[in-house]
Write a structure and sequence with these properties.
about 90 residues; alpha+beta; binds zinc ion
Length: about 90
């Protein structure tokens, strides 16, 4: 949670939101957060663990549909082009 907020630069689509970490991947830096703004939604974020603000579009994220078990089942620890900024689902 604190790490994500620290990494989000102004102008990032997730900047300014509050988050609750939900699942952390054991195989990479991906963490699923619930976004605590309005109706709940979820994002998979590739944290950089830099502890400082990144440059947009980092940290990369992917909005997750609910239920997101199918998405996570296909998760292969790679950051792909389609993990780009697609905004709110
Ligand atoms: Zn992973």
């Amino acid at each position: 949670m604190a790490e994500l907020v620290a990494e989000l630069p102004p102008g990032h689509p997730l900047h300014g939101h509050e988050f609750i970490p939900t699942i952390r991947c054991d195989g990479c830096d991906a963490v699923v957060f619930s976004v605590e703004t309005g109706p709940p939604w979820f994002v998979l974020v590739h944290l950089t663990w830099s502890r400082t603000a990144e440059r947009v579009p980092w940290p990369m994220f992917r909005p997750l549909p609910v239920p997101f078990t199918a998405v996570l089942a296909g998760h292969d620890h790679q950051i792909r082009e389609d993990d780009d900024l697609r905004g709110r689902p």
